[in-house]
């Protein structure tokens, strides 16, 4: 006699899918709004505390990251402000690395404390890091970032290699009149250096209309230049960031292009953001956040947290409105981690 096996339904967390059938594998988690640099395109007057420094604590970070990972997120990027300003960064890395199901834990940093901390972060479980370097010329670097620290940041890069970070990406915001003339220098560096150097097209935020008019440079010209000199596009992974990556047989390193104004840039959007104050942001240039903090106080709220995130996702729009000069509520990217 055939026996029938009764299958009990297993409670599944809601998958993170929006109204355009896009799946969200990648969480950008901001640890702090504070930054010690004064990048001219981001915080030209430096970080100004606005009284809200009650950033998510370790338990809250673990809970929010845990809810995303249990719903299918495979990659988390720690960002800020400057994430290395958090004294408990190493402990946060270890907490999140222990989440079952998380495949990749990565960090974006200006390089402050990298020289001293690379080994410790690596031992705690950090898989890779992105390092911002806007110029290879010490004087221009100081002019753009407000910090005369290029030598120290380069020593940090060496320390990161020594600590075993093999996949290091360098972020360079392309700036007319400030670093665009260094293109040849950057490419010669990539020829001999095993990094992925990403040129990022400047994005217009609410705080910098004049700056944008003076320094914005379309990245498309650079893309055409790369294609004409034998660079080839590399296939993209499901949890990859927004860069198009190019390879060349004569170069040890790779070149990435982040072109937020290009057609179709947002169609493959696969990422969500949580700010250092616990607000879910559906888009880098959206209109406001959805507060999650009340559901980060107890492990018992994980299901409710996932349901709130999934419900919010139904309001995610197709893309940004930067082409019409609308950056939503975003005054600068330090308030959400880029
Ligand atoms: N417009 C837009 N820009 C983004 C988005 N995600 C990242 N960026 C920008 O891309 C630049 C590099 O960001 P990173 O923090 O290094 O991370 P990433 O390139 O997304 O990450 P990986 O490719 O995973 O290494 C920053 O200037 C970000 O603001 C996005 O969703 N939309
Ligand atoms: C907001 S920062 C946060 C992490 C860290 N402080 C750093 O600078 O790497 C993340 C990235 O955003 C980039 N960024 C900031 N403002 C930008 C803008 N207006 N347009 C394009 N990229 C920007 C920075 O160059 C950096 O690579
Ligand atoms: S880009 Fe990063 S390092 Fe520069 S001011 Fe913004 S948050 Fe700070
Ligand atoms: S601008 Fe908004 S929709 Fe476009 S890729 Fe970035 S987060 Fe996604």
Explain the layout of strands and helices.
Layout: E1 26-30, H1 58-70, E2 75-79, H2 89-97, E3 104-109, H3 114-124, E4 128-132, H4 138-145, H5 150-162, E5 168-174, H6 183-192, E6 196-201, H7 209-215, H8 220-228, E7 232-233, E8 244-247, E9 254-258, E10 271-274, E11 279-281, E12 290-291, H9 302-313
Parallel strand pairs: 1-2, 1-10, 2-3, 3-4, 4-5, 5-6, 6-9
Antiparallel strand pairs: 7-8, 8-9, 10-11, 11-12
Helix pairs in contact: 1-2, 1-9, 3-5
Bound molecules: guanosine-5'-triphosphate, S-adenosylmethionine and iron/sulfur cluster (2 copies).
One iron/sulfur cluster binds next to loops.
Structural notes for this entry:
There is one protein chain. The chain is of the alpha/beta class and 338 residues long. The protein has a single domain, classed as Aldolase class I (TIM Barrel), CATH 3.20.20. Helices cover 27% and strands 16% of the residues. The protein contains nine helices and twelve strands. It has a twelve-stranded mixed β-sheet, with helices on one face. Strand 10 (271-274) and strand 11 form a beta hairpin. Helix 1 (58-70) packs parallel to helix 2 (89-97), helix 1 packs across helix 9 (302-313) and helix 3 (114-124) runs parallel beside helix 5 (150-162). The longest helix has 13 residues, at 58-70. It is globular and about 65 Å long. The protein starts with 25 loop residues before the first strand and ends in a 25-residue tail after the last helix. The model has no long low-confidence stretch (mean pLDDT 93). The structure holds guanosine-5'-triphosphate, S-adenosylmethionine and iron/sulfur cluster (2 copies). One iron/sulfur cluster binds at residues 242, 265-266, 269, 283-285, 319-320.
